[in-house]
Each structure stands twice: as structure tokens, then as C-alpha cells.
Amino acid sequence: MKKTVAIVDDLDTKTVYEELSDRSSGGICVFFGAVREFTDNEEVTALEFEAYKSMALKEMDKIADMAIAKWDLNKVVIKHAVGKKKVEEPVVIVGASSAHRSACFEACRFLIDTLKETVPIWKKEIFKNKSVWVSAHP
Amino acid sequence: MGVEMLFFGIAKDIVGVSQMKFSFTTETVGSVGDLKVQLIKDYPALSKLSTFAIAVNGEYAQDDLVLKNNDEVAVIPPVSGG
Predict the structure, then answer these.
(1) Residue A13, exposed/middle/buried by CB under 10 A (0-12, 13-18, 19+)?
(2) What distance in Å separates residue A82's CA from the closest CA in chain B?
(3) What is the band of B25 on the pLDDT scale with cuts at 50, 70, 90?
(4) Chain A residues with CB inside 8 Å of B55's CB?
(5) How many helices (H) and strands (E) does chain B have?
(6) Which residue range forms the structural domain that includes residue A81?
(7) Domains in chain A, number
């Protein structure tokens, strides 16, 4: 079992197939999170991500281990970007490979949903005239 | 006694720094819960957040965890990665 967990300045979206493929995997499922142009009809110029890096890596590692315990996976990837990202740029990649597709599909959903709940990474939406930390206030 | 405090996201904006030494006597602050009360007293805007968690030495901590000298204590406002 191989897991790849990383926090990087710029995500390379082209290496993920090689990171997840192996001889026993018939299915590979990948989710990319990217910067969307509009939030509630307001134009976003960029997102800025900040991480508590040492803890975030530990939490990402725990999520990978939970997925491996829950499904029969061969490889897992969890990578998140930090810094300022423009519209259409990738900000997160999660993926899993398994013998058959159902395990990697379910695991992939779990990886991104759990990352959003527990990993200490923060996103600031930058609009033309203001910026807002996402989810900070009720 | 003191701990090294780290602030992230909106907590960093509220406090004005990303890192500071926080000193206290064990009569006023013993646990993570006590520290939260003290932080809200010092920085009332923290109470306006949806929630905030505390991590001690890189792990989410419950309110009853007792702080030790030189712990690394991070204020974790609502996370929003992905």
C-alpha cells in the first residue's frame, strides 16, 4: 500500500495517474478541486490558502489511513495547494486506486469530504473590493 | 509558565500576529478550556466565529486537556480547505 500526502505551492495535475496506477488496480478515481469564478453571483479574482502545515499533513495522513482501513485500496493520494490561486487553477487533488471501481469511487468521496471537515487549511476568497475567510462566521 | 501560540486564518487577523508567547499562572489557566476563556476575554472578536478549536502539539485538543510548559498551542478557526 502506497500513500502520497503533500502540501505544495503548485499542484502538478499530470503526475496523479502514475502515482495511483499499479498492476492490481482496475479502477482509479481522482477528484480535483479548483478555483470557481463566482460565489453567490460575486466575481472571485483569486483564492488564498493558508495551512498549519505540520498538523495538516498529520490529519491528511490519518484520512488516508482511515480510507485504507475502510476500503480495499491499492494507492491513495491527497495533495493540497497553499498560496494564492487564480480562477481555474487546481487547489486540491485526492484519489484512490483499487481492483474494482466501487471502492475507489467511494473512497475518493470520503477523502475530499473528510479533508474539508478536519484538515487545518483555510481559504480566503478575494473579490474585487474585499476578501473573506470562508466559513469563519455563522 | 507559558505556551507558544499560533494563529491561523481569521484568528490571525483578529489577534494581529501569527505567533506569540502566552504566559499564565496555573491559577488562571490550567486547561485548554481555561485558555479559550482567557483568549475570548483578550480578543472578544473570537467569540463571533462559528467555532474555534484548539490544537496542542499538532493534535485537536478537548477542553479538559491540561497545558504543559512550552506546548505548541494553535487556534484553529473553522477550516475551509478543498
Answers:
(1) middle
(2) 10
(3) confident
(4) 52, 55, 120
(5) 2, 5
(6) 2-129
(7) 1
Distance from CA of B59 to the nearest CA of A (A): 7
User: Which residues in A lie closer than 8 A to residue B49 (C-beta atoms)?
Assistant: 136-137
CATH number reported for the structural domain that contains residue B11 in this entry = 3.10.20.30
Query: Per the domain annotation, does A136 fall within a domain?
Result: no
CA distances from A81 to A50, A65, A91, B12, B67 (A): 9, 21, 5, 20, 32
State pLDDT tens for residues A58-88: 999 999 999 999 999 999 999 999 999 999 9
CB neighbour burial string for B21-42, b if at least 16 within 10 angstroms, e if fewer:
ebeeeeeebbbbebbbeebeee
Inter-chain touch B76–A58, beta carbons under 8 Å: no
The answer to whether residue B43 neighbours chain A at the CB level (below 8 Å) is: no
ipTM of the complex: 0.95
Hey, which residues 55-114 in chain A have their CB within 8 Å of chain B? 55-56, 58, 80, 91-92, 112
Question: How many CB atoms are located within 10 Å of the residue A116 CB?
Answer: 17
| Residue A110, domain CATH | 3.90.1170.40
Q: Side chain identity at B19, as an amino acid letter?
A: Q
What span, in angstroms and rounded, lies between the C-alpha atoms of A49 and A1?
30
Q: Which A residues in the span 119-138 are in contact with B, Cβ-Cβ below 8 Å?
A: 119-124, 133-138
